[in-house]
Amino acid sequence: MSAPPAPPLILASTSPRRREILEQLRIPFMVMPPAYEELAGDPVTHAVGKAESVLAGVGDQPVLGCDTEVVCEGRVYGKAENQADAEAMLESLAGKTHEVVSGLALITPVWREVHREVTRVTFRPLDARDLAHYVASFEWEGRAGAYAIQGLGASLVERIEGDYLNVVGLPAGLLVRLLAEHFPGVYGFG
């Protein structure tokens, strides 16, 4: 006799990358765009705000909120506004180690798990040709730190320490651990 299907997580995000990661992990989910405006601030605060903004309308289903930022030498790198901004960001990250910091909130009306996940990424030294090639790809659009590690942006990276999928957009190792603890076997983990 097979187990009943797992109830879908409610993903309080419109990020295609977060959807792809949940699909990759075979975690059922439904998207509910958050009614939350991200202003400057902590990704953990944003993750909680996103999750809480949809919680009232979902009953007892778990809600997942996430937000990610790139930090290097105390500076927060958001999304590049244009090609020149993307090139300047990438040039300032070249040859350095930066942190990809995600806030993750998994909440229900009864309990909440709120965490910060950090992955360290080191870029190789980049010359003008490297920068021009990557910026011309337009892959940087809509990405914190102006790169996508799962695409051509992988060519910029020398080393990574931590959860690769956190850099893509969702700290998957952390999410799997939380699902295994709170829902043993329901989502296939634990």
Descriptive terms for the model:
single chain; 190 residues; alpha/beta; seven-stranded mixed β-sheet; 6 helices; elongated
Reported for the largest beta sheet, the result is: 7 strands, mixed
Order of SSEs, N→C? EHEHEEHEEHEHH
Integer average pLDDT: 95
Radius of gyration equals 17 Å
Separation, N- and C-terminal Cα atoms: 19 Å
**Shape category:** elongated
The DSSP helix count reads 6
Number of separate strands: 7
* Structural class by SSE content: alpha/beta
- Low-pLDDT runs of 5+ residues are none
Helix content: 25-40%
How large a portion of the residues is in β-strands, by DSSP E? Answer: 15-25%
Fold and architecture overview:
By secondary structure, the chain is of the alpha/beta class. The protein has helices at 16-24, 43-55, 83-93, 128-136, 164-168, 172-182, and strands at residues 9-11, 29-31, 63-72, 75-77, 97-107, 112-123, 157-161. Strands 1, 2, 3, 4, 5, 6 and 7 form a seven-stranded mixed beta sheet that branches. Helix 3 packs across helix 4. The chain is elongated. It starts with 8 loop residues before the first strand and ends in an 8-residue tail after the last helix.
Helix-strand layout with pairing:
Blueprint: E1 9-11, H1 16-24, E2 29-31, H2 43-55, E3 63-72, E4 75-77, H3 83-93, E5 97-107, E6 112-123, H4 128-136, E7 157-161, H5 164-168, H6 172-182
Parallel strand pairs: 1-2, 1-3
Antiparallel strand pairs: 3-4, 3-5, 5-6, 6-7
Helix pairs in contact: 3-4
